[in-house]
Amino acid sequence: MAGQSNLWILTSELLKLVQQADEVYETVRSTGKEMDFYTEVKPFADKMKSLSDEWEVEAKKWLMSQKPKYIHKQQITATLENLQIIAVQAFFPKTSYSRFKQTVHTVEYVLNEVKRNVHDGESSKNVINDNES
């Protein structure tokens, strides 16, 4: 259960970073100004990479143990790649609006599904444990 709680926390943190990336994108798109690579883009992308790499390990462990019905290994892998793409593309105003937004929505969908399934799994375990007492 500790691994699942960690997965829930990591997923929540990634959702916050995706929201932050989306806000950055809206800002750079409206101003037309790219942000500095070394002071703004790289630190954010590094943070996203570190967190998403950790999330991928936890998510794949969780997939193997819980076998959720509607989440598959390929979605985890694709989400990892998309998180890292979003982390960089958000800072460039020439990034395609529709592609960026579609990627953000896809990532948010998978992250929210993982979060919901982890929560539901923990809730059902708590009910089982309560009934055994």
Average pLDDT reading: 89
Distance between the termini: 18 Å
For the secondary structure, the number of strands is 0
The CATH class assignment is: Mainly Alpha
Helix percentage: over 70%
Residue stretches low in confidence (pLDDT < 50, at least 5 long) are 126-133
The Rg value, from CA coordinates, equals 17 Å
Give an overview in words.
The protein contains four helices and no strands. With 133 residues, it is an all-alpha fold. The chain has a single domain, classed as YppE-like (Four Helix Bundle (Hemerythrin (Met), subunit A)). The protein is elongated and about 45 Å long. The relative contact order is 0.18. The model is unreliable at 126-133 (pLDDT under 50).
Write the layout of secondary structure elements.
Elements: H1 2-31, H2 37-66, H3 73-89, H4 97-132
Helix pairs in contact: 1-2, 1-3, 1-4, 2-3, 3-4
List keywords for this structure.
4 helices, 133 residues, mainly alpha, 0% strand, disordered C terminus, single chain, Four Helix Bundle (Hemerythrin (Met), subunit A)
Structure summarized in a few sentences:
This protein is mainly α and 133 residues long. The protein has four helices and no strands. The protein has helices at 2-31, 37-66, 73-89, 97-132.
